[in-house]
């Protein structure tokens, strides 16, 4: 499966997806890394790792059309958001339904949006984590494909907690994406569970 990874920043989850794809049994290949920030550090890393990159400017008026065309030009079949800090418009999503996944640093449905680690600490939670989910028009609300728990320890700050959750994210994302693609390629699962999702 040809995978595009969309980023806005450092791209550590992108790197985790790329490195995991080097295992022989990985069901996806990173076909493209792009995003909304032409100077995102993750783009330089992807390039150095031999992955095709496209520099798109999120400020361009026709950004979403450009993105859609770029994905199609690279024959992308699946899209993984990895620290991609733009809300995806409905008409774009409609074209890629069931084919966009995201990673979010909380145990969804808890703590949607930004500031998840501070919210978990402030709430006195003992456990937080990360979630990989399908992207639907409503923010951080699509079907949960997989989660991992991470303990919150005494003295954790949003920064120390973020660092630890990130380690868990890097393991979760490639695994859950691979599982999802494995299921999506099974014709019985398509008819039973995803219906009109045309994977
Ligand atoms: C990650 O914590 C991810 O869960 C969130 O944004 C952060 C991106 O980090 N959506 P990176 O660019 O993957 O290093």
From TrEMBL:
Keywords: Purine biosynthesis, Transferase. One of its GO terms (molecular function) is phosphoribosylglycinamide formyltransferase activity. It is an enzyme of class 2 (transferase). (6R)-10-formyltetrahydrofolate binds at residues 85-88, 102. Coiled coil: none annotated. Belongs to the GART family. Catalyzes the transfer of a formyl group from 10-formyltetrahydrofolate to 5-phospho-ribosyl-glycinamide (GAR), producing 5-phospho-ribosyl-N-formylglycinamide (FGAR) and tetrahydrofolate. This is Phosphoribosylglycinamide formyltransferase. It comes from Sphingomicrobium clamense. The gene is purN. The chain holds residues 6 to 204 of 319 of the full protein.
């Amino acid at each position: 499966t040809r995978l595009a990874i969309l980023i806005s920043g450092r791209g550590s989850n992108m790197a985790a997806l790329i490195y995991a794809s080097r295992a022989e049994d990985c069901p996806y290949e990173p076909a493209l890394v792009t995003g909304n920030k032409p100077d995102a550090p993750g783009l330089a890393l992807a390039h150095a790792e031999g992955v095709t990159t496209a520099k798109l400017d999120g400020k361009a008026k026709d950004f979403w059309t450009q993105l859609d065309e770029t994905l199609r030009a690279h024959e992308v079949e699946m899209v993984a958001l990895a620290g991609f800090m733009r809300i995806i418009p409905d008409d774009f999503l409609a074209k890629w339904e069931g084919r966009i996944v995201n990673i979010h640093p909380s145990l969804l449905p808890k703590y949607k949006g930004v500031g998840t680690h501070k919210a978990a600490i402030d709430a006195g939670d003992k456990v937080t984590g990360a979630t990989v989910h399908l992207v639907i028009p409503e923010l951080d609300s699509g079907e949960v494909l997989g989660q991992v728990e991470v303990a919150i320890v005494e003295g954790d700050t949003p920064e120390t907690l973020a660092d630890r959750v990130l380690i868990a994210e890097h393991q979760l994302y490639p695994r859950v994406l691979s599982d999802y693609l494995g299921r999506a390629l099974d014709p019985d699962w398509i008819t039973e569970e995803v219906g009109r999702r045309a994977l």
